[in-house]
Amino acid sequence: MNNEGIFALPARRRLTDEAYDLIKNDVILCRLKPGADATEAGLASHYGLGLAPIRSALSRLSQEGLVNTVPRRGYIIAPVSGRTANDVFDLRVLLEPAAARAAAGHVDEKMLRTLGAGPFLRDSAPDDLQFLRNNRDFHVAIARASGNERMVRVIESLLDEMQRLLHIGLFSNRDRQRLLLDHELQRQQHEELIDALVAGDPKASEDAALRHVQHSRELVMNALGNILSVTL
User: Fewest CB within 10 A of the end CB: N or C in the chain?
Assistant: First the structure.
């Protein structure tokens, strides 16, 4: 086998992963607007990649619900609706307090404090994507500490879907002072949840997790009402 045959597949895989990461990040950050049309040719031109990796990436993103296939038209970026957001939060309200209750006394404090610290908005704009990754990992780590692997898988899936919603809620264009207050409250809620988990207090952990999810829900639903046409 020649060198081209040896390295062709890994190179193709790397390009597919690059296309997937680029498109997914832009969907999460709403650079690709919810409900917008998208074509393989247009995305290939935009990102400077070939059609094959773009096609593979769109297939993966379609399976994750971030893009929708439209016959004879191409794709649309999955719309965001109040109903979808409410469905996700309904499940988070049920699952995450239960996971926190079971995780009390079993968490890695150092990891949670690192992940839960931010980056939150202060004097300069934070790295939005890094915040969203840290936030996802923070909540997944708590779920893992519960010892319920089925619950972990469901919460992971919900948090993947949450990233774009949370970006809208925490980083949408609003009054900067209000953003500062919202971000500081989120940070404080993370700290309260960690304190309860480390103390091994199941009830306090459950209550802190519930308050945090409810606050996140309020941020997201208010932001959706402000910037999108939402059918509730």
Answer: N
Residue in 176, 159, 177 with CA at minimum distance from that of residue 213: 159
pTM across the whole model: 0.79
pLDDT at residue 183, rounded to an integer: 79
CB neighbour burial string for 145-180, b if at least 16 within 10 angstroms, e if fewer: bbebeebbebbeebbbbbbbbbbbbbbbebeeeebe
Please compute Rg for the chain using Cα positions. 19
Which residue in 9, 81, 24 sits closest to 54, CA to CA? 24
Using DSSP, state whether 37 is helix, strand or coil.
strand
CA distance 77 to 42: 13
Res 16 pLDDT > 80: yes
User: Letter for the amino acid at 29?
Assistant: L
| Chain centre distance of CA 96 | 15
143, 103 in Cβ contact below 8 A?
yes
Place of tokens 């469905």: 87
Please give the biggest Cα pair distance in the chain: 63
